[in-house]
Amino acid sequence: MEPIRYVEKLNAHYQSQGFQPYQWTVNHDAPLTRLAKPLSQCRIALLTSGGVSACDAPPFNPQARNDLRLDALASEGLTGCLVINDAYYDHRDADRDINCIFPVERLRELAAQGIIGSVAPRHYSGFMGRIYTRAAVINEAAPALALRLKEDRVDAAALVPA
């Protein structure tokens, strides 16, 4: 059985829509760093690419290209007022339980159990996957997010892709 050539198929799909061949990012030496302190003392934030937004915020446009929008979502009082604006995955389960794509309640439980130190005051939603300008992510959007996380004294972020 031949493996699925995902990258080739994806490139063919997007080229059929008029896009140039995608320049994939290849990390030969990802800058992973050990935590400076035990997880039980770390403040953790969430980042989802699942199109999650607050009910009173403008919805994400699931068809947008190169949308570097990144919503900050206040940690407290979130779960009752979140919606998902994404047409690229089946989110029926997440519509019933937002923790499928944005596990903020699970994070609070980990903090209550002492497994993590604390929950960050802000979490983030954005980078929805149809971004073809990776230089803008690397040089602008990601550093801006890192600065916000640093302002909130976040030690680690849980990345929750859609």
Topology:
Blueprint: H1 6-16, E1 43-48, E2 52-54, E3 70-74, E4 82-84, H2 92-96, H3 104-112, E5 118-119, E6 122-126, H4 134-151, E7 156-160
Parallel strand pairs: 1-5, 1-6, 1-7
Antiparallel strand pairs: 2-4, 3-6
Describe this structure as you would to a colleague.
- The strands form two sheets. Strands 1, 3, 5, 6 and 7 form a five-stranded mixed beta sheet that branches.
- This protein has four helices and seven strands, in the order H-E-E-E-E-H-H-E-E-H-E.
- The protein is globular.
- With 162 residues, it is an alpha/beta fold.
- Helices cover 27% and strands 18% of the residues.
- The protein has one domain (37-160).
Query: Number of helix segments?
Result: 4
Cα(first) to Cα(last) distance is 28 Å
Radius of gyration: 17 Å
Largest sheet: 5 strands, mixed
Pattern of helices and strands: HEEEEHHEEHE
- Helical amount: 25-40%
Mean pLDDT: 87
How many domains make up the 3D coordinates? Answer: 1
Envelope shape: globular
Q: Ranges with pLDDT <50 over ≥5 residues?
A: none
Which structural class fits the helix and strand makeup?
alpha/beta
Number of strands: 7
Question: What fraction of the residues are assigned to beta strands by DSSP?
Answer: 15-25%
